[in-house]
Structure formats: structure tokens, C-alpha cells
Amino acid sequence: MFNSLSGRFLVLTTIFVMLAEVLIFVPSVARFREDFLNDHLERAQIASLALLADDVLAPELEAELLDNAGVYNVVLQRDERRELALSSPMPGSVDETYDLREAGPVILMKDALLRLFDTQPRLIRVLGYPKDDGGELIEVTMDSLPLRTAMIDFGLGVLLVSALLSLITALLLFLAVRVLLVKPIKGVVGHMQRYAEDPEDARRIIKPVASVREIREAEEALKSLETQLSQSLRQKERLAQLGGAVARVSHDLRNILSSAQLFTDRIEMSEDPTVKRMAPKLVSSITRAVSLCETTLAFGKAEEPAPLLTQFNLAELVNEVLEAERLAIGEHEVSLSEDIPASMQIRGDPEQIYRAIANLVRNARQAITGSGEEGEIAVSARAEEEAWIIEVTDTGPGLPPKAREHLFQPFQGGARKGGAGLGLAIVAELVRNHGGKLQLIRSGQEGTCFEIRLPTGDLG
Predict the structure, then answer these.
(1) Domain that holds residue 398
(2) pTM across the whole model
(3) Do 374 and 294 lie in a common domain?
(4) Domains identified in the chain, total number
(5) Which reaction(s) does the protein catalyse, per the Swiss-Prot or TrEMBL entry (predicted)?
(6) Residues 290 and 321 reside in one and the same domain
(7) What is the DSSP secondary-structure string of 167-207?
């Protein structure tokens, strides 16, 4: 409770009200003491009036009058002459004298505190003005213990009332803070928590409803922030999807255009003047297109569509992949081979499987041609009880350490200089969409082998 805002308000209010009451306590006790002494002076003056009726009082009557007044003696001064009006035996000599005629607030508070904390019985003399022009001065001698007792009783009453007022004030403030501040703040916090669960959902944006101006301003500022954040997240998601789609299209389109460049080399060898004139323009256009595709690869990665599963002949599909690669090999000493049963039928998306195998073969071919050495690429397949296994093996230089570390991560697993690192990431996703798995079986100086494992059962 005390760690909450309303709980701390409760404690602080109680402390502050008690502190205020303590500051009031001293003047209150000083005023009570002054009233107490003035009351005794007035009662002593009334007692002395008995002498006006009879100049001589019986000792018993005089003692009774003094006892009722709470004093030992009364001295009146009239016409600049001091007169001992009433008197009785005193228990000792006077210890202190207090003159109420000229005492200011500071003196009264000081004397009150001294008397309050003095536990010893004292005989005190009090001076003051008589009531109703009864003379110029009245003086009484009295015991201090009744005064101190009355001051303590009054002080305890003040403290008790102060404590009660403090608790009532603190409770009222506690309830007010709970209703006016804590509840609206909790409402804002609740909105923030719900918004954080799905910041792209525009329905979760806060709607300012607070009646307190400061909290409403905070709600309006939060609404503006959440609105901008939601728009930014939606825009970022759209851009990421668009960029990923462009990157995938660009990756495969670049490979298609690269094959088209090979055909332009043969077109340039034509003796037809028109063909010779148009061939450089064609080559330039294709080169620009390849460059554009490579540039757009920086847009990112998006999810592939779900595969359209059909039964197809794997040997025929692999043959198409290898025929396209033979055109790209040109004069390089790279041989291609396949070891796939002619009647082997697998279930999958032919277009996606084609792209997966083509990417692996192309990566192998680029690794071999980049090393400047001769090499061989082999595609083999076999059927097991629960999966179809497709292996792409090459005799190239193997994958560098960085490529192995981020093998299937887009834009990080590039094995050759200038590569975008999308090829293996695309293959891994295409295979994963079929419920399969792409694995690196080995890679080193003796070559590299990738394995595609496709489940024979239906996708789950």
C-alpha cells in the first residue's frame, strides 16, 4: 500500500497535518496558560470584594475565599497604594513572578513551555490588571502544579483532536487521489499494456476520456504517439513484404537474364548487318537489367507462397535444370551429371523444386568457375521409406567459414564476392514449405554436398 501513489499521499498528509498541529500546539498552550492565570486573577478579585462589605472577615471565611480562588493571597493596588486584601500562610518563598500586563506572544510561549516541562512544584506570583476598573494592579500568589496539570490536559486534548483531524483529512485526500489521479493513471497504464500486445491494431489506440486536464493532455499525447507508431509499423511491414518480394523476383530474374546474356554472345557472331547493329543494344539492355536486379536484392526477404503439390517426374525436371546450366557454363571446364531413376515420381510443387535445385547447381557452378579450376557437379536422388532424398554434389573449393556460420540466413551467407546470400536462404524456405529440410552434408577442399529431404507423406 505504501508503495502506491495514494498510500504515500495518505502518509504524507498525516505527517503534514500533524506537523501543522504541532506548530499550532505551542501558541494554543500559551493562550490557555494566559487564560488560566487571568481566570485566577479574576476569581481573586471577586474574593477580595468581600472586604467592601465587611472590613474584618473571619479567618475561616477568608481561607474559604482564597481556596475557591485557588491562590494564597491577593494584593490590590488602588490610588497608587498597595493593599493586602486577602492572605493565608504560604508554603514557602516565591520562586518566579509572571507579569501578564506587558507579556508579548514570544514571552508567553516561552513561559508556557518552561512551565509545561518543569515537573517541580513552584510558588509563583502573578501580576495583572483588575477587571472593571477595580484598581490599578492585582497580584496573587499561587501553586504551579494545578496550572501544569491543566496545561497537560489541554495539550493532550489538542493532540488527540489533531490526530483525529489528520486521519480524517488523510483519508479524504486518499479517496480523492484514488478517484481523481490513481484511477485515471491506472486506466492509461492499462491502455498502454493492451496496446503493447498488438501495436498494429488501430482499435487499441487510447481514446482520451480523463476529466483532469493534465491527465487528458497525457492521454492525447499518448494517442498521437500510438497513432504514429501504428502507422510506422504498418508501413514498415508493407515495405518489408514488398522489398522481400522484389528481392526474390530479382534473384531469380537475374539468373534468367544471365542465361540470356549467353545467347547474345552467339547473336554477335551473326553475319547479318542488322543483327550486328542491334546486338550491342540488346547486350547493354540485358546488362542494365541484371544490374538493376542485383541492386534490388537489398530490399529483404518475404515469405514464399504455399506450394501447389502435384506428382511429377524428378529426372525430367533435373534434366531441364542441367540443360540451362550447360548454356551458362560456356567454355569453362565444368561437367554436369545426374543419377536419378528415370521413373522416379515425387510429390511437390514442380516450379519451387526446380528453383531449389537450380539455385544449388548454380551456386556450385559459380564456386567452381570462380576458383579457375576444373570441376564436376552431380545431382542424384533416391527414395527412402519416409522421404525422397535429392543430393547436389560438387568438387569445388568448399564454403568459406563465414558462409557456413550464416548458411541459411538471407544477406549474410553469401559464399562468393558480390553475392547477396539469398540463394541458400530461398532454397531452405522452399524445402521447408514442403515439410522438408535442407542440410549441408559436407564442405571442404574435396567439395561440397547439399541434401534436400522431402517427406513422402502429405503436408501436415
Answers:
(1) 306-455
(2) 0.41
(3) no
(4) 3
(5) ATP + protein L-histidine = ADP + protein N-phospho-L-histidine
(6) no
(7) HHHHHHHHHHHIIIIIHHHHHHHHHHHHHHH-TT-GGGS--
